[in-house]
Design brief:
By secondary structure, this protein is α+β, with helices and mostly antiparallel strands. It contains two helices and three strands. Strands 1-2-3 form a three-stranded antiparallel β-sheet, with helices on one face. The radius of gyration is 12 Å and the shape is globular.
Length: about 70
């Protein structure tokens, strides 16, 4: 799972990308309807991605992000 959150002039959003070992891909985008910083947007993206993984029945997952704050 790859995830990222962003804050811009149009609001706060997040993206989640899943890739299976067979290279099947699933992209999920969400908009946050509350004020948030970049860190909060990334945190929400991570949480939402983990919830999606549970709903999809994923048993083992690798999580990637460009921020050491979340990965560590």
């Amino acid at each position: 799972m790859y995830f990222d959150g962003s804050l811009n002039i149009e609001g706060v959003g997040a993206g989640i990308f899943f890739m299976s070992p067979n290279k099947d891909k699933l992209l999920y985008v969400l908009r946050l309807h509350f004020p948030a910083s970049n860190n909060v947007a990334e945190y929400e993206a991570c949480l939402h991605g983990m919830r999606l993984a549970v709903e999809l029945g994923i048993k083992r997952i690798y999580v990637y992000n460009n921020s050491a704050l979340f990965i560590n």
